[in-house]
Batch of 2 targets.
Target 1
Amino acid sequence: MGKVHPSVVILTGAGISAESGLRTFRASDGLWEEHRIEDVATPEGFERDPELVQNFYNERRHQLKTVVPNAAHRALAELEQGWQGDFLLVTQNVDDLHERAGSRSLIHMHGELHKARCQRCHGVFRWEADLGAMTPCPSCGAHGELRPHIVWFGEMPLELDRIGEALERCSLFLAIGTSGNVYPAAGFVRMVPRQARRIELNLEASMVAGAFPEHRTGPASETVPELVRELLG
Ligand code: OAD
């Protein structure tokens, strides 16, 4: 019988992009200190004031152009290259730093800043430019129907079936730079088999730290490359 290769699922959050210069959500200088979630990250907020919401994401799209992946993003791309078993990276981040670092087997469960979606025809489009409240849909031509392809509060995250299947058969689960406040992602650690190895990498204990038998405390740019070296032997 051939060697059985372990399968890995990795969940990342805003903490992995912090050292690239993107603010996290819940730190004292985080995005949710300056902006109300209800205003910029809910379907109701978008209905009330589309201009405000589009500007919030336009600004973040601009900022993405000024940052680059850090050592933690690069280490995960290396891990994927060197890994013999199944590999799935699930990110809650809407930035594109994982793909720019070379990650390929990647799910953006909370959407992507570089995509727009039409509420009329449901088309999803790659989007680099600014979105305005009346920007026409490139496919059906409707005005005022394009929105950021971002999963807002109260909406269903993307590709949960595929993520669930990978979690159920993984033997290694890593959670990197995520505070464990937002479900369903925060509950993933409880969906992996009991015998799976579970490691949390964070600056501090997350809300779900108790579900992880192993912890690596420190900045992701240090802890992630170190763990990847260990895993690739
Ligand atoms: P949070 O801002 O809630 O948490 C960021 C986590 O990263 C915290 O636990 C920090 O301790 C940790 N952290 C910060 N800097 C770090 C570093 N250099 N190295 C390692 N860890 C570090 O962000 P998320 O958990 O990603 O959703 O938030 C989850 C979701 O809530 C986001 O996807 C977003 C937000 O509302 C949507 O916008 C849909």
Target 2
Amino acid sequence: MTDNTNPQRTELSALGEFGLISHLTTGLKTFHKSTLKGVGDDAAVIDNGDEVTLVSKDLLVEGVHFDLTYTPLRHLGYKAAVVNISDIVAMNGTPTQMLVGISVSNRFSVEALDELYAGIRLACERYKVDLVGGDTTSSVSGLFLSITVIGRAKKEEVVYRNTAREHDLICVSGDLGGAYIGLLLLEREKQVYKANPQMQPELEGNDYVLERQLKPEARVDVLEKLRLAGIKPTAMIDISDGLASEVLHIAKDSGLGCRIYENKIPIDVVTADIAAEFKLDPTTAAMNGGEDYELLFTVDVNDFEKVKDLKGIHIIGHMLEKAEGEYLISNGGSLYPIEAQGFDHMKVD
Ligand code: ADP
Ligand code: MG
């Protein structure tokens, strides 16, 4: 693995995260007809008679996905559980069970892991998910946390990423960019603290974005709202990597183009204010920040009347044929190509 003389060696950075997944998984055979969807969506879909079973997994690594200098372990546990639940929700499913794998160094105490589990338990309680197993090992350094969530849905209710159609409306729940701005604040305070440990963190008044970063929620309530309104999205994904990356997933996987209108992207005033402090365009935070865990979905254009007045749902654009490409229409009316610049940990900046 570390043989530098091997001419075959390809750096991971040459592929990036999505390139690597695709490289490792292309041409996989399936042996079971029950595997309805394998790699390539928020969760795998397994046939179970009238219903399907949904399965999703995430792996979080200390120092890469979380920083314990400003992430309380209780919040980490909660967030780790919620972001997996969010992947089941993004399939229009109901989360039901969870397995938790942890790998910990002896730097952690029992009390510390109790805190982590208090967060996981709280998420299980809130989303009515049963913690049914996992695995525990020691690690040489740091904390690794891997969560698998299982869910279910009626077969005809499942919503995939690749089934958007031309003219569909693109919608998003809640508001975007807040989680990234929260992260910037926490990182800034960490630098201040490192420079002068006597300084008190200046975090008051910023609760909204801090909560967006440290304590996201899975939008089960949005699924319920859509169901009550008689709307079934044509495609759906949760926003883990930023609006740009996710809308490209829907467009490319569906073989379509799209337009997003900058002035339609929902951004909270607190997010916009703090972004200004950082001299950062809030649209950039929404497009490329990520971790908002809102739902991005498309609906049939004939559902416009049903969707247009739904509170907390915003129509931000529409799908077009592939040849039209994927563009953001700025407030000034210019067209900018949408590019995925979400957190791609394997790419060199
Ligand atoms: P999400 O952001 O919704 O969690 P990911 O981008 O992590 O989804 O994963 C995209 C798809 O690739 C999913 O179907 C996931 O199960 C699959 N995947 C990710 N890593 C691997 C891997 N190492 N081997 C096989 N499949 C993978
Ligand atoms: Mg997802």
